[in-house]
Amino acid sequence: MHYRCALITGATSGIGKAMAEAMPVETDLLLTGRDGERLAALADALATDGRRVEILVADLATAEGRAGVIARAEAMEIDFLINNAGLGRFGSVAETPLATELAMVAVNVTAPVELTRTLLPGMTTRARQSKSRAGIMIVSSVVAFQAVPYMTTYAASKVFDLFYAEGLAAELKGEPVDVLAVCPGGTRTEFFDRAAMPDRPVPYMLSAEAVARQALAAMGKRTVLVTDPIRKVTLVPGLIRRRILRSLVARVMRRLARGK
Which residues pair with 180 in a beta bridge? Predict the structure, then answer.
């Protein structure tokens, strides 16, 4: 899949940075995050003759930050939206500051919904007109498949991301827009340190580069991608059942929608 212009949120490090680095040189980039110096360094490294790489420092936990990203993305007429930015915090709900809990919901839930809902109509129209395809990627997590005490709000937000992507993919069946939910397992990023975890919870981890390569390769080929090599084996039967059930539910709901 070759996209003309991609927006990547949370591009300063980890999977978002790896996504930017793995993107074909033919794809222009809009990179967002909270660290301007890192974004500038990444943009300098990725800029090539004829390639447009723009950066925007924005905090997706705020309405102003989300509005700024949307405005720039619309101006660049993106055709690939990568909702990668994520925020986690280790600790019990009762002891985590309310502001931190709300910031997790804003970054992990509100931002993907607002960016997707606002940018989707233009992406769909341009894809129809150019007879090409657009793409939406939402980075969820393997924790979306079970509750995780002491990361309760983070895990719950990733359940939303997964279900949102699956439902959106069913709604867009027949449209020139592919949707993919990416569910990474343990990945070597700064997430665990930023989440203030006392230790990393799994002994094996993939590199952010490996996760990015798998995710980009899966666009247009499936709806849910689990990158964790061990969890993938245990989750595949359930994913198959979910796909069948999702298809059946989508048929029923589509008939209801047409009958409104």
Answer: 137
Task: Name the one residue in this structure whose structure tokens are 């992990």.
Answer: 108
Does residue 174 belong to any structural domain of this protein? Answer: yes
Could you give the CA distance from residue 159 to residue 151 in angstroms, rounded to a whole number?
12
Domains identified in the chain, total number? 1
- The CATH number of residue 203's host domain is 3.40.50.720
Q: Which residues are bridge partners to 207 per DSSP?
A: 188
Give me the count of residues in the chain.
260
- Domain span at residue 24 reads 5-234
To the query of whether residue 3 is one of the catalytic residues in this protein, the response is: no
The catalytic residue among 150, 154, 164, 204 is: 154
Give the tokens for residue 170: 């069913």
Q: What is the pLDDT of residues 17-41, one digit of tens each?
A: 999 999 999 999 999 999 999 999 9
Instruction: Give a yes or no: residue 191 inside a domain.
Output: yes
How many alpha carbons fall within 13 Å on the CB side of residue 69? Answer: 33
